[in-house]
Write a structure and sequence with these properties.
The protein is an alpha+beta fold. It folds into two domains: 19-119, Phosphorylase Kinase, domain 1; 122-240, Transferase(Phosphotransferase), domain 1. Helices cover 34% and strands 18% of the residues. It contains six helices and nine strands. The protein has a six-stranded antiparallel beta sheet. The protein has a three-stranded antiparallel beta sheet with strand order 7-8-9. A hairpin with a 2-residue loop joins β1 (32-35) and β2 (38-48).
Length: 271
Amino acid sequence: MNKPQLPEPSSPRKREPYTHLRALGPNSPPQRFRLDGVEYDLVRTFKHDFFAASGLYRGPDQMVVLKMGRSADFLGLPVAWIGRWLIAREVRFYSQLQDLPGVPKLLGRVGSLGFVHEFVPGHNLHRYERVNDDFFPGLARLLARLHERGIAYVDLEKRENIIVGDDGRPYLIDFQISWQWPWRRGRDSWLARWLLRRFVHADRYHLAKHTRRCRPDQMRPDQLEQSRRISPLIFLHRTLFRPLTLLRRRVLAHVERARAAAGGRARSEGE
């Protein structure tokens, strides 16, 4: 296998605001990269936030997604180590789940700050979309397989992470904040089991919430009622971190409007 070629970042844009809030700073995702001797060209940027940038690329035989971790300094501090760490742990999750339908195929690493997975044709789950009868049962089976392996998805609240494939099947992308006890030793400890139960409960709550909005006809009355009860962990997250998340989204939305006015626009993967 050929060694992947680290892409060169695009030239920085001039006078663009808030570039310190973007993973690549003033740079944009690369226009081209090479993996295993094959060149891929940028089609469009999906996302460029504080921690990562991702884009859709076209090769001679397939479309792929390149995700790059943060490489830019933040307020003068070198934080590329965070980008390397997040990318490395996300690659580990993809590697552990390659045999599961519903998880895009991992195609390789691009330097220490990037990796490539296959592109899943489809769209992100809409808030009140009436998906087919097997979509949510299939998503529940996929989550159950993760949980059996001691992995919690954690980020199921975001509908943009749930892809409705053109084949009608559910797919999960973006394992950046998924959780697993980080060491082999202690995975059977009471603390590891307790933490896993908390995160698994959150996964199931968000699955039930999406099901209630999209296919309430597939839920019993007691399940509908239970889907409205949030756990203490989710309540804590909403109380402490939700305001910060909303603030960050507003700032990034302002950044994207400025980028659009300058001639560039980012779209979310799956849109």
